[in-house]
What does this fold into?
Amino acid sequence: MKSFWKITVLSLIVVFSACKETALKYSAQPVPFNQVKITDQFWSSRLQAHAHATLETCIAQTQDSTERINNFIKAAGLMQGGHEGIYFDDSDVYKAMEGIAYSLINNPNPENEALLDRWIGYIAKAQQGDGYLNTFYTLNHQEDSWTDMEKHEMYCGGHMIEAAVAHHKATGKNSFLDVAVKFADHLATEFGPGKKHWVAGHEEIELALVKLYHETGDKKYLDLSYWLLEERGHGHGKGEIWNKEHWGPAYCQDDVPVAEISDIKGHAVRAMYLFSGMADVAAEKDLPEYTAALERVWEDVVERNMYITGGIGSSGDNEGFSNDYDLPNKEAYCETCASIGMVMWNNRMNLFSKDAKYIDVMERSMYNGVLAGISLEGDRFFYVNPLESEGHHHRQQWFGCACCPSNVSRFLPSVGGYIYAVSGAKGVFVNLYVGSTATMDVKHTKLELMQNTNYPWNGKIELEIQPEMETKFPVNLRIPGWCKSFSLSVNGQKQNAAKQENGYVALERSWKKGDKVELNLDMPVEVVAADPRVTANVGKRAIQRGPLVYCVEENDQANKNWNDLQLTDASTFQTAYASGILDGMVEIQGRTGEENFTLIPYFAWDNREAGRMKVWLDYNE
Ligand code: FUB
Ligand code: ZN
It folds into this structure.
């Protein structure tokens, strides 16, 4: 793969129900987050902030400060009045519910569980007799439903299905899943071969239907998902998107049949959800033409259209992609939801291929693009994530269009599910370095894996392997693309294991209780240059250490002229763990000539006094 950057290489399933669940058919199976307990400082504090502040914010905003829950109460006939807000506001309620449900698994909270029961009651009552569910149409003109493919009916329905599956997994209750099944059955009655054509204007339903298939075992949902994917690119699209000349079908990836996709176009979140759905269906139905399309478009996204933060979608105009290498910094759109989409899609690409290059990208988006989207306290959010600011861009409590806060809220409690995967003869894959305890089955043996690390602040990782009985299998350790040298030992014995082409080191041996692996990833400060075709970054460099992209914030440059700050070949860098700063982090102290400057991780910017920020710094050879 060609490297976009010159210097660094850029590159749920819980068993809990009486339903006939089916396993994922990817060549590697993720270890679900409910089998992974996160124990490290970095992610534990994010999860604490989520369980307290983020959920509280989402609940207050959907129920008390806006009309989102009231829309359901009105559609249920329990309150008078019309629909208020945006036509896809239902989706924020569902995403908030998904986040609450995930959080119940690791942080049981009877109050939140009761709140879900109450909301599910409204939702079930708001559902029409035929399974239709969407408060915008029910409270406006029900007869206009399923006429404008942009109007997000399937998008909202998809988020409802995801929330219902999460609720079922977390509580074992069927109340919400029944609503989801009734809705999906309604879809299957209305749409499909020989029925109404439909191109979902905002993708999401595709991956949700695959989740529902796995939760219920009913293949009809998988087939409907495939049919919906195949509807695209054949001129069936009708509605606002297709009427707007400057959008057109490419805006929602309806310009070519999905198997023919090669160039990334249009709305970024829609594209990511589409590709995730395609990957899920391709894994189930063995569709090499889908896999090939996904690999082609992945290269286009990652090599020509992705920011160093793993953010995508540079243009606010279409909330999406513009031209190759058009990656402005101040004007970068980089919606938080699009970075979450990158995590979802890249995770799936890795499960297909067991190639660590996808985890490199996933990690980049996760630690930079996604985490920047939420304040350290967990109660303020970025929708747009620029790489440079004049000091006027700040996180907010909520947004009129609130897709990002509720999306981060459902994403964070699922992070444990991205750390490990298992693949038959290929054994265990350690994809992310996150201090955790995980249980999984490998070669018919129960395995407990303990990971101890202070990543991303340093690259020392200790693993303790606890198989129920001595068993031979490979443990594949990902060597991140950013890491140029590492050392490895097993039970204190140095190993000369080499990184394989797929980005892992495979340690194959007969593992017994208490075996210990130690991996040390060298994590120096790196000065990164962009591809020269990115005109925004000509004459600039960025600083990265391990998976984290750094930035300078005006707050740290007191008494200095912001515009004088520059890097040269002679710039030096020192790192120090600063426990009192922000949430505790490794700061970088830079020095160019007599000038000192401080860099902090990009994800942590705008958590202090408002000020200017930049990732790409002037560079003088
Ligand atoms: O349209 C639903 C969501 O709102 C999209 O994913 C975001 O880009 C925002 O427009
Ligand atoms: Zn969003």
Remarks:
- The chain has three domains: 29-418, 421-480+486-521, 525-620.
- Residues 335-337, 383, 403-404, 407 surround zinc ion (ligand 2) (CB under 6 Å).
- The chain has a mean pLDDT of 95.
- The first helix runs from residue 41 to 65.
